[in-house]
């Protein structure tokens, strides 16, 4: 089901994210997803996230679809040229996968195959444009497709807490121009920052889902704050995680923080995208606590 | 060896709001330069009253050399709303870096010809992509100043203004954004979706 249908109904749309394994044994991950993520609108499947080679996003999307979930196919431009991207989009349509999230992708140098050729033939903007072309029944070379063209709900990402917020907004506008119909954001730990970003982004009138990562411990959030682009963790969050070590270890503090971020951001956006990073089992609890 | 070809004349002419100061580089002879076409185009612009001055010299990619010449022609440059450079991509980028608050535009596309690069040295790199983007990027080459060679804007990887691939390097799109703001051309960020044409890159193998 196209996730855009949910936004048009005015729902506060909840999605989560799973990363395929480095291998092809998916049973455990699929049954976990079924158990904890069946009630939400859709589940993103990452595409060689952080440039670490894993089972393909498309393959895992198919496995989730077969298990009755609604996958969002994440597609990056790092590993495929325009022809491979187009043919994977057609394969997605074949499998009935109709949500796609278009990303540029991290550079190969950051991952576990640093010697691989970084492709970047297209980028997030031109990929969105390509999806629109396919929907019109032609490929990027201008050749006609055979039969009924595919239809996708087309998503993109934006980094609201980035220190380059002007450049991010400019890119967001280009993505919309190219066909983006919804946005998921990089993880937000500071609702204030997100809210002031939304003040500027709301002019575009496109649904935005606030990105939330469950903070597991002090080491994790410190690392992200220092090293991950677009992530800023306020000291208050770090102090909260430090306060009660047992509670943090049990995941209770992380769940509370995540739920609070959702509650505070909810009036300013159209949904939430939870990146549980292995803590998928905690998603239902977070949503309950957030009042969703 | 590389070759420059004039961009579409109407497109280039439309970049000039009042008058342009024109710079021609007849520098390295390994660059094939469309001298006759350029001269004809410049005569047309002059007769339309769109030219404040013309500087023709060698090796505009030599920063000291060009900086001196630019300072000698300051009045004509001030009179112009933009500087139109007829050279390879390195030349345009060199001029652009020296005239930070001026709109500097490329009048040519730079193509590679098999058999190696020109002698162009230095600080700025041109990959001879055959479809020069400098007029959309504030005179900063998106193919060489951005680690991913992105032509549609910044990726999500910049942190503290640094590139995700190399923290010693400033994010190219951060620089482009700043420069466009400085010269009042943020509107080009709304130009149509750009898709590279690798057919123009004769030396496609990198
Ligand atoms: S965009 Fe860059 S690589 Fe292409 S011609 Fe211009 S300076 Fe050279
Ligand atoms: S961080 Fe900036 S320079 Fe580096 S790849 Fe992304 S857009 Fe390009």
Quick take:
The complex is a heterodimer of chains A (292) and B (206). By secondary structure, chain A is α/β, with parallel strands linked by helices.
Word description of this protein:
The complex is a heterodimer of chains A (292) and B (206). In chain A, helix 5 (124-135) links the parallel strand 4 (99-103) and strand 5. Chain A has a single domain, classed as TIM Barrel (Alpha-Beta Barrel). With 292 residues, chain A is α/β, with parallel strands linked by helices. In chain A, helix 4 packs across helix 5 (124-135), helix 5 runs parallel beside helix 6 (165-178) and helix 11 (252-265) crosses helix 12 (283-289). Chain A has helices at 3-8, 27-37, 57-66, 82-94, 124-135, 165-178, 191-201, 218-227, 235-243, 245-249, 252-265, 283-289; strands at 13-18, 42-45, 71-76, 99-103, 153-158, 182-187, 208-213, 271-275. Helices cover 42% and strands 15% of the residues of chain A. Chain B has 206 residues and is of the alpha/beta class. Chain B has a domain at 2-130 and 192-205: 3-Layer(aba) Sandwich (Rossmann fold). Helix content of chain B is 29%, strand content 17%. Chain B contains seven helices and seven strands, in the order βαββαβααβαββαα. Chain B has helices at 9-13, 35-47, 63-72, 74-79, 89-98, 142-145, 172-182; strands spanning 2-6, 20-25, 31-32, 51-57, 82-86, 103-106, 108-112. Chain B has a four-stranded parallel β-sheet, with helices on both faces. A three-stranded mixed β-sheet of chain B has the order 3-1-7, with no helix packed on it. In chain B, helix 5 (89-98) links the parallel strand 5 and strand 6 (103-106). Chain B is globular, with a radius of gyration of 16 Å. The mean pLDDT of chain B is 90. Classes of the chains: A alpha/beta (292), B alpha/beta (206). Chains A and B meet through helix 5 and helix 6 of A and helix 7 of B. The complex binds iron/sulfur cluster (SF4) (2 copies).
């Amino acid at each position: 089901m196209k996730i855009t249908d949910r936004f048009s109904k005015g729902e506060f749309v909840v999605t989560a994210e799973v990363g395929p394994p480095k291998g092809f044994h998916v049973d455990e991950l699929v049954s976990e997803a079924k158990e904890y993520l069946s009630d939400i609108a859709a589940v993103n499947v990452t595409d060689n996230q952080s440039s670490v080679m894993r089972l393909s996003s498309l393959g895992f999307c198919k496995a989730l679809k077969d298990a009755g979930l609604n996958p969002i196919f994440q597609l990056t431009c790092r590993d495929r040229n325009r022809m491979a991207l187009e043919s994977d989009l057609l394969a997605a349509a074949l499998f009935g996968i109709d949500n796609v999230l278009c990303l540029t992708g991290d550079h190969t140098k950051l991952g576990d195959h640093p010697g691989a050729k970084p492709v970047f033939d297209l980028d997030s903007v031109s990929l969105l444009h390509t999806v629109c072309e396919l929907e019109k029944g032609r490929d990027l070379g201008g050749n006609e497709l055979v039969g009924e063209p595919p239809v996708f709900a087309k998503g993109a990402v934006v980094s609201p807490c980035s220190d380059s917020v002007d450049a991010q907004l400019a890119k967001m506008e280009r993505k919309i121009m190219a066909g983006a119909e919804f946005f998921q954001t990089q993880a937000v730990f500071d609702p204030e920052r997100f809210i002031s970003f939304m003040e500027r982004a709301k002019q575009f009138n496109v649904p935005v889902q606030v990105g939330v990562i469950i903070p597991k411990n002090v080491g994790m959030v410190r690392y992200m704050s220092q090293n991950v682009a677009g992530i800023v963790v306020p000291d208050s969050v770090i102090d909260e995680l430090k306060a009660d070590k047992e509670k943090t270890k049990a995941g209770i503090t992380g769940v509370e923080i995540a739920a609070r971020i959702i509650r505070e951001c909810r009036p300013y956006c159209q949904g939430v995208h939870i990146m549980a990073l292995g803590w998928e089992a905690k998603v239902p609890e977070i949503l309950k606590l957030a009042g969703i | 060896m590389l070759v420059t070809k004039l961009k579409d004349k109407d497109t280039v002419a439309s970049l000039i709001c009042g008058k342009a100061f024109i710079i021609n580089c007849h520098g390295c002879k390994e660059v094939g330069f469309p001298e006759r076409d350029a001269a004809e185009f410049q005569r047309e612009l002059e007769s339309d009253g769109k030219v404040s001055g013309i500087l023709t010299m060698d090796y505009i990619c030599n920063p000291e050399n060009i900086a001196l010449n630019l300072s000698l022609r300051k009045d004509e440059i001030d009179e112009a709303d933009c500087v139109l450079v007829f050279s390879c991509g390195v030349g345009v980028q060199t001029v652009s870096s020296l005239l930070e608050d001026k709109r500097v535009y490329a009048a040519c596309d730079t193509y590679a010809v098999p058999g190696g690069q020109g002698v162009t040295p230095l600080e700025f790199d041109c990959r001879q992509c055959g479809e020069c983007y400098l007029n959309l990027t504030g005179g900063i080459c998106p193919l060489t100043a951005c680690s991913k060679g992105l032509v549609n804007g910044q990726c999500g990887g910049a942190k503290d203004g640094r590139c995700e691939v190399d923290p010693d390097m400033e994010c190219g799109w951060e620089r482009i954004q700043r420069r466009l703001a400085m010269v009042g051309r943020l509107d080009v960020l709304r130009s149509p979706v750009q898709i590279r044409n690798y057919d123009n890159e004769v030396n496609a193998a990198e």
